[in-house]
């Protein structure tokens, strides 16, 4: 199982190509508000960008908060989303510890599903898909 990491955000120029790719390819909409990955600036217009994206919590608090089962845990962390079950109550948005779930103008929630469709659209190679087991092995390594 793989998850999306924004591992090299120091390279980000804030072009939002990843957000638009997500919105268009995954959600079939052309709006930054309907993307699972969103780019925010820490105040500047040319540096200090950060990606707001799902951290693949295991277990995911957003899924636990969802009263309809629209969000369910995904093997390896993160969630599987069934939009047809969503009642737009906002419980998932409130439960997310890292503000990774956004609501569009109609109240529909959008979260990264770790599909990786955005990765190839980043012109500066800021994003990558990483195997969960490989990531856990990296975390356990002791620095020399």
Low-confidence stretches: none
User: What percent of residues adopt helix (DSSP H or I)?
Assistant: 10-25%
Look up the CATH topology.
Alpha-Beta Plaits
Strand order of the largest sheet: 1-8
The tally of strands reads: 8
- Mind summarizing the main beta sheet? 2 strands, antiparallel
CATH class: Alpha Beta
In DSSP terms (H or I, runs of 4 or more residues), the helix count works out at: 4
Shape: globular
Rounded mean pLDDT is 90
Main structural class:
alpha+beta
Oligomer: single chain
How many domains?
1
Cα distance spanning the termini = 28 Å
C-alpha Rg (nearest Å):
15 Å
The CATH architecture: 2-Layer Sandwich
List the helices and strands and how they pair.
Layout: E1 2-5, H1 17-26, E2 38-41, E3 49-52, H2 61-65, E4 71-73, E5 79-81, H3 91-95, E6 102-103, E7 109-110, E8 128-131, H4 132-140
Antiparallel strand pairs: 1-8, 2-3, 4-5, 6-7
Description of the structure:
There is one protein chain. It is built from four helices and eight strands; from the N terminus they run βαββαββαβββα. By secondary structure, it is of the alpha+beta class. It has one domain: Alpha-Beta Plaits. A two-stranded antiparallel ribbon has the order 1-8. A two-stranded antiparallel sheet has the order 2-3. A hairpin with a 5-residue loop joins strand 4 (71-73) and strand 5. The protein is globular and about 40 Å long. The mean pLDDT is 90.
């Amino acid at each position: 199982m793989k998850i999306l990491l924004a591992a090299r955000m120091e390279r980000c120029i804030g072009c939002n190509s990843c957000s638009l790719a997500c919105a268009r390819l995954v959600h079939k909409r052309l709006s930054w508000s309907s993307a699972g990955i969103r780019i925010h600036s820490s105040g500047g217009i040319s540096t200090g960008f950060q990606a707001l994206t799902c951290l693949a919590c295991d277990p995911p608090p957003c899924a636990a908060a969802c009263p309809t089962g629209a969000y369910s845990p995904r093997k390896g962390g993160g969630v599987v989303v069934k939009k047809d079950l969503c009642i737009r109550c906002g419980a998932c948005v409130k439960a997310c510890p890292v503000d990774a779930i956004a609501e569009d103008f109609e109240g529909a929630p959008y979260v990264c599903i770790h599909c990786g469709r955005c990765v190839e659209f980043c012109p500066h190679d800021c994003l990558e898909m990483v195997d969960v087991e490989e990531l856990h092995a990296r975390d356990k390594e002791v620095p020399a």
